[in-house]
Fold Methyltransferase domain-containing protein.
Amino acid sequence: MIDIEDRLELDERSAVDFVLAMRKRWSDTVYPTMAEQYSQSGPPSGDVAEAGRRLRELDLYPWYSHLERVQQKMLWKIAGDAVLRRRADLLAQYDQGSAPLGSLTLDPDLELPSWYTDYDIHIQPGSFYSDDMSAYVYEFGARIVMLRDNDGYKFHRLFTETALPAEDGVSRVVDIGCGFGKSTRPLALRYPDAEIIGIDLAAPGLRLAHAEAEAAGARISYRQGDGRATGLEGGSCDVVTGTMVLHEMPAAAVGETLREAARLLKPGGALRFLEFQPTGDPFRDATIFEHAERNNEPFFHDLFGSDLLQMCRDAGLVDPRWTPFDERRDGISPDGWGERREWHFPWAVLSATKPE
């Protein structure tokens, strides 16, 4: 498979480096400076709404908010141009030259929900589902921004290695909202003898995920479908997981997805979703809400405002809990995220079990 980053021309690489440097300085310099302005503006706020009002009155806020949105728009412009320059070569990769290890099942009649199609999520023009190039654009952007390491999957391997059950006895794993396979391929490494199924609404992402899995020698079944009604048989899965998918849904859809996950699980099966949770610091949490609004992710409020633990209980699951996840350290972090000056995502793992 073509690694677009490895083939960047000098001007393209310089543009990528510029945006990355801007993002880092926004996070580790502008954000702490604004936090200091906030602390000097008065006593700590009692809630996120009050913190948000004070935040927007700070002198640095217009620069902070502008830099956050403009860097994202610049990223997609760079990614889109880089992908389109290589369109023919990238499309050719979908042609299978040998018998596939895994499978790809698309449903051209699948009706995509309006809450999925009404927004250009992450400000990506056309979003993730619009055409075959949109998947490459999203992969390029995701790998550059948060997955930049030796193979682009370190973050998700950390999740599978620290948050998921041991491989003993696991025969089927379902990844809801698998996207271009960034979360699914590490599952195949974690559970080499299990059937791994990735489900997503977007056909372009699934085509790319399948092609990359085949190139890597990973046996994965990718299916186009709705995580709220997968069509898989009930009680057939040992693990149902998803990463960064629930916050893209309205609250009702989150509840439906959790109920479907509970239906799929075998007795004793494990539910694990990597998501976000409030930190308890009103100022920091206000910036998370602001991020969601500037990044075209309107359902963050639904995630933070809903009781997902009760949703799990209502779905028949037991022992639901949230556990912080720190990508800088050892993944699952029961003691919290620790002291961090820079802006960061408050990762957390939602876990629950289907009773025996």
